[in-house]
Specification:
Blueprint (H helix, E strand, L loop, with lengths): L31 E5 L3 E4 H15 L4 E4 L5 E5 L12 E9 L4 E6 L3 H14 L4 E5 L4
Antiparallel strand pairs: 1-6, 1-7, 2-5, 3-6, 4-5
Helix pairs in contact: 1-2
């Protein structure tokens, strides 16, 4: 599971996700990318499950880049606990993804296989995604 080695603050505010991504919104490393069409928190478990699918489909010839990292802690209080007594302990880590962000990039497979991979990864994600390709100049 992905998580930071060390952090400045143990607990974060929730914040809110507004607007669309202006950084990381195009394919820069691989041939194809998986782009978010909605804004959401993507947990480290969801990133890992997508990574497993991508590495299995790419096999030896392909290469994969993960362009998001879960660096925001999400806290939760234990079940059946009374109100008060402070904020809960960090439970899991999420990456804040805005609409338009390219989350994964890969190369080394034909386009029809890339569409199949995108369909499988879409089932692992809590948001709508789409396959984008690098613009050839």
């Amino acid at each position: 599971m992905l998580m930071p080695k060390r952090i400045k603050h143990r607990k974060h505010h929730r914040g809110r996700i507004r607007g669309e991504a202006h950084r990381g919104n195009y394919v820069s490393f691989g041939e194809y990318g998986i782009q978010a069409m909605e804004s959401a928190w993507i947990s480290s478990r969801q990133i890992e499950s997508a990574r497993v699918v991508l590495t299995r489909k790419l096999q030896k010839g392909g290469k994969l880049w993960i362009r998001i990292f879960p660096d925001k802690p999400v806290t939760a209080k234990p079940a059946e606990t009374r109100m008060g007594k402070g904020k809960g302990e960090p439970k899991y880590w999420v990456a804040v993804v805005k609409r338009g962000r390219v989350m994964f990039e890969f190369e080394g497979i034909p386009e029809d296989q890339a569409k199949q991979v995108c369909y499988i990864v879409a089932q692992k994600m809590p948001i709508q995604i789409r396959l984008v390709s690098r613009d050839k100049f």
